[in-house]
Design goal:
Layout lengths: L28 E3 H5 L3 H17 L9 H27 L4 H14 L2 H16 L2 H9 L7 H6 L3 H8 L2 H10 L5 E3 L1 H12 L6
Parallel strand pairs: 1-2
Helix pairs in contact: 2-3, 2-9, 3-4, 3-9, 4-5
């Protein structure tokens, strides 16, 4: 029986130790069911599941295909912004430089120009904060009185998301990849085991 896997990035702990000999992955891998399904998010979630599985197995994230990382981090951005707005994104991402760079690169790769422009505008607000204020915000309680949270709050995303839905953008992006690999579950495990160079416990 396959292990249940979260579709959200786990930023609270690093993946297991990396093995330098692991080859770079060259194509995004998704399931046949997600590709054929009616729900556009299923395809995005299939990529998230693959990325999270590989992270759990110790695969170096920088060796993932750029398109897989783009889909993964743009969906993290979408989920955080849709749920709690920009302050929640800053807080839950710990405003980690790698995460910020991955989101920016992902939006650019997907051609989500309007979302990219908004993200850069909002990121400039964080850059303008004194370092001690940002550090205090990341240590604070996100809920209740929080002046830094209020300073970072911006509702422009919600209007933009109604015009440019990132689920629709992400779905079209993945489906349009010329080298997308659409596999059965068994073939997905076989392909990922080839990348890892060892079996995956299901």
């Amino acid at each position: 029986r396959a292990r249940a896997r979260s579709s959200e990035p786990d930023l609270s702990r690093p993946p297991t130790s990396y093995t330098p000999a692991m080859p770079a992955m060259t194509s995004v891998i998704v399931s046949q069911g997600s590709f054929a399904g009616d729900d556009p998010y299923d395809l995005i979630n299939s990529n998230l599941t693959v990325v999270n599985l590989l992270r759990e197995e110790g695969y170096p994230p920088e060796q993932l295909p750029a398109a897989a990382r783009a889909s993964y981090w743009v969906d993290f951005y979408r989920a955080q912004m849709s749920n709690g707005g920009f302050p929640q994104l800053v807080y839950n991402a710990r405003w980690d430089a790698t995460v910020v760079a991955e989101i920016e690169a992902g939006l650019a790769l997907m051609g989500a120009a309007e979302h990219l422009a908004l993200f850069r505008t909002l990121a400039a607000r964080v850059a303008a904060l004194p370092a001690d204020e940002l550090a205090a915000f990341l240590r604070s309680n996100l809920f209740g009185p929080n002046p830094t949270r209020d300073l970072l709050r911006d509702d422009a995303y919600f209007a933009l998301a109604r015009q440019h839905d990132l689920v629709a953008v992400g779905h079209a992006f993945l489906r349009g990849l010329p080298d997308l690999r659409v596999l059965s579950i068994d073939d997905m495990f076989a392909a990922l085991e080839q990348v890892l160079g060892r079996p995956i416990t299901r």
